[in-house]
Amino acid sequence: MFIDKAEVIVTSPDRNFVTLKLTTDDGLTGLGDATLNGRELAVVAYLTEHVVPLLIGADASKIEDTWQFLYRSAYWRRGPVTMAAIASVDMALWDIKGKAAGMPVYQLLGGASRNGLMAYGHASGKELPELFDSIRAHQEQGYKAIRVQTGVPTLKAIYGIAAQGADVGDASVRYDHEPARRGAKPVEEDWDTRAYLNHLPGVFEAVRNEFGPDIPLLHDGHHRMTPIQAARLGKDLEPYDLFWLEDCTPAENQEALRLVRQHTTTPLAIGEIFNTVWDFKDIIRDQLIDYVRGAVTHMGGISPLKKTLEYAAMYQIKSGMHGPTDISPVGMAAAMHLGLAIHNFGIQEYMRHGAKTDQVFQQSFTWQDGYLHPGDKPGLGVDLDVDEAGKYPYAQAYLPYNRLLDGTVHDW
């Protein structure tokens, strides 16, 4: 099988997505997700101008060789743009290989290690009644594990609160499902770490009192704390038995996790903005985390993330793959196939895409009683309707950013 055609397709049904479509000389097609939230066109240029010319005529069966060629031949390695581009090629080649074999990709990765993938949803509210309603709504949708994000008194708009869409953006779109706002400039939000640290433990106490001790609860700190602040929060949340505390400190400072680890037994999940196994190497080896948050799209595809998770398995560290709606249905399917196959699966983030997205990307994966399954259709199990995609051109959009009360730009 040789690659005869490579197309980079940009569409914006409910948000911007970048998809690579490869076609072989015998007519097989493969899809890969190249979406990089808020910087999509940078990946489009990287693919169109630098990668696609290298793919035409290449052997579509050589997944590992192609990955190593694209990674090493560029010399300037790593980074989110490069790795998202390589990821799309890797996914598309696995999709083709599955179709050529007549098997779903998870079978090619070693077969299923479980019946389905437990997923968590994103509940949020500016105040407790709204938060409780959101948790109940997610339970009604089947979620058995729920991430809890809450408003903070005195702060107008912060990460992860769905109801803020009506305040600072398009009220028709759930904010926590698509925080990248369409427009010429990013939305400015506010932040106060002290107010957050003082408020959050009481929220989890109220949630536990309302919903009991058994439901797995998660929380995302979104890189906004210093090491000592994160250590304090982890310790303050211990009575409420979190499934994990995610991205408690800026990911660039991995040494910070030692201090956090010394002071709390709250499990830690790290890595949604990491790009390679090298970003995870030391914190896995030193057992500073409990869950790998890598994304198939951001980490260069199925092939390198599988290797990273196999390394993590040596230290009893599990997967917690990134999966909000800035991962397209193609990227979500890839994560599901990988999660079904590996032994050390932990949990899968899952946010439902909008109706327009589901029309553009036709999916075979299922969601039943809190568990995902990628389906048994050969390949990844996602088809792209090119005509439908063409109805939704790219729309400029940016993720928000934070300023402290004194005007200092802070981590969002």
Automatic annotation (TrEMBL):
Keyword Lyase among UniProt keywords: yes
Give the Pfam families listed for this entry: MR_MLE_C, MR_MLE_N
Q: What class of enzyme is it?
A: lyase
Enzyme Commission identifier(s)? 4.2.1.8
Give UniProt keywords alphabetically.
Lyase
Q: Which InterPro entries match?
A: D-mannonate_dehydratase-like (IPR034589), DgoD-like (IPR034593), Enolase-like_C_sf (IPR036849), Enolase-like_N (IPR029017), Enolase_C-like (IPR029065), Mandel_Rmase/mucon_lact_enz_CS (IPR018110), Mandelate_racemase_C (IPR013342), Mandelate_racemase_N_dom (IPR013341)
Write out the GO MF terms: mannonate dehydratase activity
Q: Which residues form the Mandelate racemase/muconate lactonizing enzyme C-terminal domain?
A: 128-267
Q: What is this protein called?
A: D-mannonate dehydratase ManD
Its lineage reads: Bacteria, Bacillati, Actinomycetota, Actinomycetes, Micrococcales
Q: Which gene name belongs to this protein?
A: manD
